Amino acid sequence: MQSRFRSDRRLTARMGVTLFLLGLLYVGFVAALIVLLKSWVLVVVVVGGLLVAQYWFSDRVALYAMHGKVVEREQYPELHGVIDRLCAVADLPKPVVAVSDLDMPNAFATGRNPDHAVICVTTGLLRRLEPAELEGVLAHELSHVAHKDVAVITIASFLGVIAGLMVRFAFYSQLFRGRKDQNTVAVFAAVMAVSAAVYAISFLLIRALSRYRELAADRAAAHLTGRPSALASALTKVSGEIARIPTEDLRTAQAFNAFYFTPALGKGSDIARLFSTHPSLEQRLDQLGRISAELGEAATPDRAG
């Protein structure tokens, strides 16, 4: 089903290129593991099983990790009401609605497709945002579902997860088993080297796609609601509030930065920003400012209403 969110050909192209490159990397990675470990059955079963598990259960894992709980209309009528209206305007199936009891103001979308999607917001976000600002954030998250980039990021991140696990497995196996056989040492060293290289490449590809998809979601949300200024206000407010939260309280959430509306830990040097999951706040606000100028008076009645 085609939603009424603006299609983004550049985002679609970037997702296709990223998946193609990661697919080549994935094939090469599996082939290298088969050669090194000399057991194609073990490699294919383990890697394939983990891929299927991540694709089918990523929404549950994300909710569990961020303490999100599915909520009914009776519990959060205003939240359900905003999502109902946006889904009707966008012609999207309504996702499962969840709330995480965290003070950190944020939101994320997850799920393998629009029919199996979850939108989760934190209680910190609900307390801090005005209705129009909340609508902008939820439209942003729904656009991720409509553009299917949530599923792409989930699949794309799988290779990095596997590579990271392989590095840990090889390291701890060698460290704790204390094997002295030179062949075994060479194999484990090769596995670690290949896994580390694969992780680094997949990391860079995913970060580049993640930054672009956030800009695409901002654009789609601004056009759907007709109120880019409300989304800009939400971005400014949430970024400012997150900056006030102690760093140690944000570290547990950092692993899910790629899925958040704004990153849990977004501060750093210019070099660090190159590896960030999100574009800078300035980039996002500049884009929304341009969209606001493009919409002109067309956005004024919506703001007045």
Structural notes for this entry:
Residues 297-305 have low confidence and may be disordered. The protein is of the alpha+beta class and 305 residues long. 70% of the residues lie in helices and 6% in strands. The protein is elongated. It starts with 8 loop residues before the first helix and ends with a helix. The protein has one domain (9-304).
Label this structure with key terms.
cell membrane; alpha+beta; EC 3.4.24.-; 12 helices; 305 residues; Peptidase_M48; zinc; 6% strand; 4 strands; membrane
What's the layout of helices and strands?
Layout: H1 9-37, H2 40-65, E1 68-70, H3 77-90, E2 96-100, E3 107-111, E4 117-122, H4 123-128, H5 131-147, H6 149-177, H7 182-225, H8 228-244, H9 247-254, H10 270-274, H11 281-295, H12 300-304
Helix pairs in contact: 1-2, 1-6, 1-7, 2-6, 3-5, 5-7, 5-8, 6-7, 7-11, 8-11
Can you summarize this structure?
Residues 76-289 form the Peptidase M48 domain. This protein has 305 residues and is of the alpha+beta class.
Q: Count every beta strand, where a strand is a DSSP E run of 2 or more residues.
A: 4
**Major beta sheet, strand line-up:** 1-2-4-3
Q: Unreliable runs, pLDDT <50, ≥5 residues?
A: 297-305
Multimerization state: single chain
Helix content: over 70%
Q: What structural category characterises the helix and strand content?
A: alpha+beta
Overall pLDDT confidence: 80
Shape: elongated
Report how far apart the termini are: 30 Å
Q: How many structural domains?
A: 1
Please report which band the strand proportion falls in: under 5%, 5-15%, 15-25%, 25-35%, 35-45% or over 45%: 5-15%
Q: Tell me the series of helices and strands, N- to C-terminal.
A: HHEHEEEHHHHHHHHH
Describe the biggest sheet? 4 strands, mixed
Round the Cα radius of gyration to an integer and report it: 21 Å
